[in-house]
Every structure is written in C-alpha cells, then in structure tokens.
Write a structure and sequence with these properties.
The structure is a homodimer. By secondary structure, chain A is an alpha+beta fold. Chain A has a single domain, classed as Glutamine Phosphoribosylpyrophosphate, subunit 1, domain 1. Helix content of chain A is 33%, strand content 28%. In chain A, strands 10-1-2-11-12 form a five-stranded antiparallel sheet, with helices on one face. In chain A, strands 5-6-7-8-9 form a five-stranded antiparallel sheet, with helices on one face. In chain A, strand 11 and strand 12 form a beta hairpin. The longest helix of chain A has 21 residues. Chains A, B: This is Peptidase.
C-alpha cells in the first residue's frame, strides 16, 4: 500500500508521500514515490505514484526517456505547453503501461498492474494546478471545493484533513496537517511507512520552495506524533459530556 | 455499508451502530442492526450485524426461532451456559445461513451474502465478554490489549478510538468517544447514516443500563458534531509549528 496527499492552498501546493512498498507483510522495501522536474523560473512539475511498483517505475522511466542515452533524452513534460497537457501525457503513459502488462503474451499475474498518480505543478503565466490521474488515463483536477487528493490508504488520514484544512493556511500549517494525517495512517496500517517525502511548491517560484525526507528520528515528526495523542485527548475532554439522563 | 463498534471498558461494554442499509446510493433504508435479549438478573446479550441484510435478518430470526409460533419458541442464546457458547451458536447460524444462500439451486447473485457480527454480554457469575464473529463462523474475543471491535466502514473512525480510549473511562466518556468516531465516519461515507443505536451494558446489571436512538436532531449529537471541528482545530494549533529552516 501507499499513502500520498497533494493539497492545494492559496500560496501553492504541498505534496507528501510515504516510501513503503510491500508484497505481503514479509517483503517490505523503501522506494521513492515522489518525483519532480523543473526548469528554473519557467515550470515545476511534481508527481506522486501509488499502485504496482513496476508500473509506476516504468511510467517515470518513460517520462524521462530512459530507453535513450542521456544526451538524446527529451522529457516531454518539460515541453508540454500547459499542466493539462502534462496530465494528459502522464495519463496516456499510465494507461499504455498497464494495458501492455496486462495483455502481454496472454500472461495474467496474480497481482494487478494498476496505478494512480497525483500530478501537481505550475508553468509560468498560468495558475498552480493539481490533478489526480486514474489507471485508465483519465484525470480530475482539484479546486478549492475539493482542494486535496489522496491515493493509496486514504481513509484513516482523511477526517483530520477535512476538519483542519483552510485554503488560506500557511505552508507550515499545511505541512503540520499532513504530518498529523500521515501519523494517523502510519499508526493504523503497516503497509504505509516512514520515511516520508515532502515538497512545497510555492506559487510563481518555479523551483521547490522546500523539500525534505522525514525519517523515523526526525525531531519534528516525533514531537507531532507524541503530542497529537495528548492534544486529541484534551480536545475530546473539552467537548460537552454525555448524560444518561438528558432527553 | 454499516458502522458498528463494540467497546470493552472496565465498567462494562458500550455498543453503537448506525442504521443505514444501501444497495447503491439510490436505494437507502433504515434498518436496526443492534438487537438484545436479556433475562433480568441473570444475563444480557447484545448483537450488532454488518453485511448482507437478508443474511443478518435471517440469522436474527433464526436466533429467535421465528419459524415457530410464539409459544413454541426457545431462544437458544437464553439457554447457553456461557458467552463462549453464545458466540459459537451465532457463528454456526451465520455460517449456515451464508452457505445455504450461496449454494441454493446453483444460483449465484451479483451480491455476496457475507455477514459479520459483534456479540457482547454477560451471564451471571462470569465476566462481561465481547466477541467478533466472522462469516465463516469462527470468532475472536476482545481483551484490554485490543478492547474494541469495529465492523463495516471501520477506517475513518478508528484513529480517534485508538487515541481516545482508556479502559478506566466512564460510560459517558465512552459514549462521547464513539459519537466522535461515528461523526467522523458519517462525514466521510454516505453509506453510514443516522440514526444511531446506543446501548450500555454495565457489569453485573444484567439489563440495559442505558439505551438510546440518536437521531439527526439529537441536541447532544449536534453539539459534538459541531464542536468537534473547533476542538480539533484548537488541538492542531496547539502542536509545535513546522519550520522550513530547522534541521
């Protein structure tokens, strides 16, 4: 499993992903699920992937044209005129990759080769945009009505985002919110695991404003993880008490 | 879908269930999923069901021997010597009911006839006990290591129970905790719906200590639902702030 969230705020976009991949509970590994490309001053594109690792790695490798020698490579995403075109291109690659694997030689594996992708970024002269690309290659775009997308193990960490989100929040608060959401998920599902990858895309910066890998020993993560339990308990006790005798 | 939680505390057991059943999003109904039987001063048994409604209703009807005229009925649960025997009996009925439906006349419906049951209660001279019965008829018992069972849509409402639970909590706090858990779930999944059924089983009472149907217009539910958002936000803001510049 996996947990990734892309969140739109007025100041830009915050992306966070875990790094655990697993095949059963006895075969776990750390793989990066967040990738980005940028042309300083012109565009930044960030991608997070969930699903079959061979599929998602194949998609990323094709985006980077790793079939060619380094000098011959042209990353299509860096030439796409709009973020819509970027999402379309990624959708096409995802659909083709899954479809090839599923039909290859009539072989049908036990696993499914499906994958989902969150795509975020901004190209100069246009707004920052956030998309979710489905395995079929189609996609939807976030707006302030539904300002975040989750992929993978989405449920445990969803209520706190719904309650805590505010479009005018600072990047620092947005990161804090995502860390709480990830901590709730990590506590409930073994197939989501540290370290976490974090990237902040500030409007009109066209370069990562902030990037970090958050490991088990990260003091801020530890502080949030340990103090959130107490903070929740205080919140809980601040609520009105139930009485057996009221109507 | 469904959401039911049975929770063991030192003082006894608290049970809460929603009442929504749905077949698609355009065919929703209200059905009771919580049932209880008791012999005053001797035993109380409470059951909550999730899964295929025809299956769960058939199980309950067979428990009550509704194939017989009222005078001839003997509820097996009321004669079982131990709660273990009660869970065994329910497990047997669940397994048989599912297995009959699935093999009947070689017909295979689109739906699955599966069901899960939470069983709680106490018989005089023994401890209060809480079980989760699987569709296969086998079951597990709660202890203070894992003091609650959820069935149905379990994920959204789980983190708050994990954080808020305390075995020595009052029944009132336990009810408050479950209402918060249900509210988070209701906000995220349309297939879980009000009203909620609540029952409190106090140790050595052998009768329901408290029973209530909590509807949309319940003032306590409304107070929790509206103040939990604010309480969570305060909890969130009480956490240390993230900084881009710390290591």
């Amino acid at each position: 499993m996996t947990y990734c969230v892309g969140m739109l705020v007025e100041k830009g976009i915050v992306m966070m992903s875990d790094t655990r991949t697993n095949s059963g509970v006895d075969n776990i590994s750390v793989f990066r699920k967040m990738f980005h490309w940028n042309v300083p001053g012109e565009r930044i594109i960030s991608v997070m992937t969930a699903g079959n690792l061979a599929t998602t790695q194949a998609v990323i490798s094709q985006l980077e044209e790793r079939t060619k020698t380094p000098d011959d490579r042209i990353n299509t995403l860096l030439g796409a005129p709009t973020m819509f075109q970027v999402a379309t291109e990624i959708g096409k690659l995802v659909r083709e990759t899954i479809s090839e694997r599923q039909s290859a030689n009539g072989l049908t594996g036990k696993g499914k080769f499906t994958a989902s992708v969150i795509v975020a970024g901004q190209i100069a002269g246009m707004e920052p945009r956030l998309f979710m690309v489905y395995p079929e290659g189609n996609f939807i775009e976030a707006s302030f009505d539904t300002p975040f997308f989750q992929i993978g193990e989405t449920k445990y960490g969803r209520p706190i985002i719904i309650r805590g989100y505010d479009r005018s929040m600072s990047f620092e608060d947005a990161v804090k919110l995502l860390i709480v959401s990830f901590d709730s998920t990590l506590k409930a599902n073994l197939s989501v695991g540290l370290p976490l990858d974090l990237m902040v895309i500030e409007r009109d910066a066209f370069a990562p404003t902030h990037e970090k890998r958050i490991a088990q020993d990260d003091p801020y993560f530890q502080a949030i993880s340990s103090s959130w339990g107490d903070a929740l308990k205080s919140a809980f006790h601040s609520l009105p008490d139930y009485s057996f005798y009221s109507k």
